[in-house]
Amino acid sequence: xxxxxxxxxxxxxxxxxxxxxxxxxxxxxxxxxxxxxxxxxxxxxxxxxxxxxxxxxxxxxxxxxxxxxxxxxxxxxxxxxxxxxxxxxxxxxxxxxxxxxxxxxxxxxxxxxxxxxxxxxxxxxxxxxxxxxxxxxxxxxxxxxxxxxxxxxxxxxxxxxxxxxxxxxxxxxxxxxxxxxxxxxxxxxxxxxxxxxxxxxxxxxxxxxxxxxxxxxxxxxxxxxxxxxxxxxxxxxxxxxxxxxxxxxxxxxxxxxxxxxxxxxxxxxxxxxxxxxxxxxxxxxxxxxxxxxxxxxxxxxxxxxxxxxxxxxxxxxxxxxxxxxxxxxxxxxxxxxxxxxxxxxxxxxxxxxxxxxxxxxxxxxxxxxxxxxxxxxxxxxxxxxxxxxxxxxxxxxxxxxxxxxxxxxxxxxxxxxxxxxxxxxxxxxxxxxxxxxxxxxxxxxxxxxxxxxxxxxxxxxxxxxxxxxxxxxxxxxxxxxxxxxxxxxxxxxxxxxxxxxxxxxxxxxxxxxxxxxxxxxxxxxxxxxxxxxxxxxxxxxxxxxxxxxxxxxxxxxxxxxxxxxxxxxxxxxxxxxxxxxxxxxxxxxxxxxxxxxxxxxxxxxxxxxxxxxxxxxxxxxxxxxxxxxxxxxxxxxxxxxxxxxxxxxxxxxxxxxxxxxxxxxxxxxxxxxxxxxxxxxxxxxxxxxxxxxxxxxxxxxxxxxxxxxxxxxxxxxxxxxxxxxxxxxxxxxxxxxxxxxxxxxxxxxxxxxxxxxxxxxxxxxxxxxxxxxxxxxxxxxxxxxxxxxxxxxxxxxxxxxxxxxxxxxxxxxxxxxxxxxxxxxx
Length: 826
Description:
By secondary structure, the chain is mainly beta. The chain is about 5% helix and about 55% strand. It is built from seven helices and 57 strands. β24 (about 405-415) and β25 form a beta hairpin. The protein is globular.
């Protein structure tokens, strides 16, 4: 077809404003485009039917009916919009389209007081419509006084919609040994719904072990974004957010900038596991994240939002039940999230302070963040409650050459049974980058003995607990990457509590890709060589040091063999494993490890599967001593909406969408910002995450469509406001295809250049040099009219086999073309 268009361009002359035939009235100014006039004699000389030039002279047009297009208004992108075209390809400017484009509604002249397709053009005659069917875009050029006041910046976002959701992440582990069996279950769930851009959510965490069971409702709130003011309102049980001061959990109301809800990069936490192990991440004794990792170095990323001025406790539970862990100091988290410009105000009653039941005073906080001239950004905050006040300030200053500083100072004034406590807490962060190869991140923090956070006061902190609080913290990490040496990273953190006990941890990592293998070396060490208290005043047993060397050899595109050696204070472990990924959604691992000190041998197997409706992984380990351990992890989401119930393999976020095919087809793969999803038996799939106020792309893998199905538009872009539930309809249709070998009555083939039209003058195609005519959207028994280069006409009809072999991509049929024109369709 591209060759046809190129040929047409060579043989056509533009004639601006040329009259069109009376039977095809031109729409002005929408269709006031250049008219292509084709030279019929030149077409004949090139062996082409002159009617082809007549067809192409009409220009590119959208097919009649509803189409999904990208809409632009005065060069401002509005987004994906469903619009309607009439039989001539003319755009209907109906009420729904005008509202989505934030244009004023004209005086209605349609039936029942509705806006007719041409009412807007009549009211604003200078309106110009530009259509590009190839790019599936429509651009409206309208006068300024036709825009709705105050909606110029927000009219293009998908807003509204109703839908409920339930997210889950459930893990269970079991260990069996000669001394008995133990079971651990953990679940993190989220339930809620969206309606009219309001977001209602309730988040819970549940753990059960042999010793105890815990259940916490971490948050339960309603939220709405007011896009015009770029402000978010939250009501209910929520976490108080301030850019400087450590917050707390409250039941109340909070106003904050919309951008403050954007998830930042978040921390990356690394450690080493001796075996298939369970990793728990906690902050202030609240379980934030739990997962299962394989033996060796592990890296946790994409963690839920963490409080930037509170330590993070990481506990690793090995397959044999032994535990070790470490603490990520708050100073290493302080510079990860930069405050967004604007004001934040929160008022409510404190909740979930376990050590002092009944002490739930009212608390209020206010803060401001913004630019400080050309120097950088700054934030100030204040907090007040009964017997407690706090002030804080922070800044971010960046210089050339990749250097930035992040200082902060906090002051507290608290009263308790022992009198008044006035304290301070100060810190400084340094970030330095040298090109893309070297980066440095360092920080130091100090606080006085009398400094208190609000939760310390309400928890009735004892003097013994006070002595266990950190007095100083320091952290430094360095990353270096070169082509020859590979990637090297090193980190060191140190903390001193008020009773003088220091704790420190050092880590080192090196890795390099060779042509034959990937080699990595990882080490970490507790330099204090003692148990480290976590934020719950418990102790987590830790190894003094741990070194892990791994060599991974590729055995193909998706298969690898790995050998590893681990050394710690208990001895050495050597292992060999095989990993394979038969598909992009399934992987498994088989391994064997031997402890040289005890002579114990462990065999293990693990697998991970991204299914259409959930994600699941599992592992099993058995030792030569008869001990065994197993784990299973399930996660996903369920969306309930106006069209039914649809499951998702991913947790569903604040802003999501439902994709629906017009035909109920299962297993069609759609690429989304979160990852691939697949339609269910009803032809629907959940887009688990749409980034608010940013373009999100959805693309259909056409190879996953049934062979006889056509898709009008396989790529859709969306720009949704926070809290929207977007409905995306993809028009599909079952289409038959056939390769015709048209012949004259004497059996000779029709010449190359013969063009075929349906009885409604739609172009079907052109006979190739090999004598074939490819027909798409074939209809059993339909009549085609063929125009030969000598301007003679013949007609043919073709049958379709209802019992067609599905393995045949395109059936072939020989048909006879009878001289004479076809009867025009009614």
